[in-house]
Amino acid sequence: MVKPFNKKTSFDKIKHLFTNEMTIMYGGFGGIGTPPGLIDEILDSGAENLHLIGNDTGFPDIGIGKIVCAGRAKSIITSHIGSNPVAGQLMTEGKLDIEFSPQGILAERIRAGGVGIPAILSDIGTENSFIANHKPKVKLENTEYLIETALTADISIVYAKQADPYGNLIYDKSARNTNPLVAMAGEITIAEVEEIVPVGKLHPDQIVTPGVFVDYIVVSEGVNWKWVWE
């Protein structure tokens, strides 16, 4: 009998993967769906000057906001920072370099990175210097487009409801958000999950993220964003 390839590990065993200056992509929307245990592990690792990519900057004490507020991020590509006033303060003080990308375009840039497309074309913000920000342009059929580069990361961290030993993932309602896209775009992808179930327990039609994208699985010790959801 062939044994399944078990990707389950512990938080301590993946801590060494987080290093200075690396690019980390994270799932989540306002902290919901951002893996809290992995965020804490990044903080414990001592890694700093991190380049972050994700939908938003969470709250000061929830989601990626904990890393931002600890001064461990050097830059971030995101769609908004409104829920985390510390991010705005750091940006104003020149301590955090922020590239704003419209939410849908950000998601598509991440998806493009996950499937190996180098860039996408967008007509959003072509006349807006805040969005265009010296990005190259191209004209197709008399319409001008911005060339938006695809996004990838050294490590992607995601949160899922269930995984099997192969790393196949399913998500819980709105906590799914950007996680499936982020899972595809990391050189290494680590999934924090509520539960690991036996091979065959997940119905194929339920699986959102195939295990081929997932390198490590850790079991969550609980989330800190339930109140945001409720």
UniProtKB/TrEMBL annotation:
Keywords: Transferase
UniProt KW Cell inner membrane keyword: no
Coiled-coil parts of chain: none
Stored InterPro entries: 3-oxoacid_CoA-transf_A, CoA_trans_fam_I, NagB/RpiA_transferase-like
Any single Pfam family the record assigns to this protein: CoA_trans
GO molecular function: transferase activity
Gene3D superfamilies found in the cross-reference section: Glutaconate Coenzyme A-transferase
Name of the protein described by the UniProt record: CoA transferase subunit A
Source organism (scientific name): Cytobacillus gottheilii
Lineage of source species: Bacteria, Bacillati, Bacillota, Bacilli, Bacillales
